[in-house]
Amino acid sequence: MAYNPLANAPKQALALLEGQGMVAVYEATGGKVTSDFAAHNLTLIPPIPSGSIIHDNACGAGTVSRLILSHSSPAAPDVKIHATDIDPVFLSTLESDVAKNSWPVEVSNQKAEALSFPDNTFTHSITNIAIFMTASAGLDAAKEIHRTLQPGGVAIVNCWEALVWLFPIKLVAESTRGGKPMPAPPISWNDGVQIQKIMAEAGFKKENMRVDRAEVWAKTSDLRGGPRRVGRFWAGWAGWAGGRRG
Ligand SMILES: C[S@@+](CC[C@H](N)C(=O)[O-])C[C@H]1O[C@@H](n2cnc3c(N)ncnc32)[C@H](O)[C@@H]1O
């Protein structure tokens, strides 16, 4: 059965996670840090030249696409971006901004593990903070990145090393569930081994890979609402427990 993070979710969490509200909550909780990672990624590669064909893979609401477009004009007026994700709410948010702004972005619903693009399509393929969410511990998505990238093209893939915000959620989850340990992710991505392993298995040569680390952070002055939104958005990680919820 497919994993359903909303199964048994309390109404307070559903109010945040359903429909367009989810995009706003995502932007208010993880948006700053994913965007900072995306911006850092773009500093690691030469400026994107005119004529580039770029894949914003697992694009969410288009963090990477938006950054590329905000930086590229007028240096690279002719880029074409293909933005793909499996979440219709994120996709429709991006699609409506694409239409409003006439951006050179084609948005489509595609699994990162089975892309419809032909081999050797992209000059750049960027998967920002998403590979660890894909099936087969990221390997199938990594293979698709390799298959769809032109020879000599640039791929950027990243994952979390440490999730400082998860610790308070873990403490709350464990103390409200009689000490039952919060499940650890089945694969640990935090030492960088898994991400390099799948990229190598997908066909990227070790000598062509570069490993980099970045630290990002966000602060809030909303000390009540900020943590509450983070908690309700991410607490489903451990599965929602039945019973009374505050
Ligand atoms: C943490 S968000 C990052 C989104 C975006 N790349 C950014 O930088 O804001 C992870 C994204 O991966 C998408 N995702 C998860 N599994 C996926 C899959 N198998 N194929 C495509 N997208 C997937 C989710 O829908 C979500 O939009």
Automatic annotation (TrEMBL):
<protein>
    <recommendedName>
        <fullName>Methyltransferase domain-containing protein</fullName>
    </recommendedName>
</protein>
<feature type="domain" description="Methyltransferase">
    <location>
        <begin position="56"/>
        <end position="153"/>
    </location>
</feature>
<dbReference type="InterPro" id="IPR041698">
    <property type="entry name" value="Methyltransf_25"/>
</dbReference>
<dbReference type="Pfam" id="PF13649">
    <property type="entry name" value="Methyltransf_25"/>
</dbReference>
<dbReference type="InterPro" id="IPR029063">
    <property type="entry name" value="SAM-dependent_MTases_sf"/>
</dbReference>
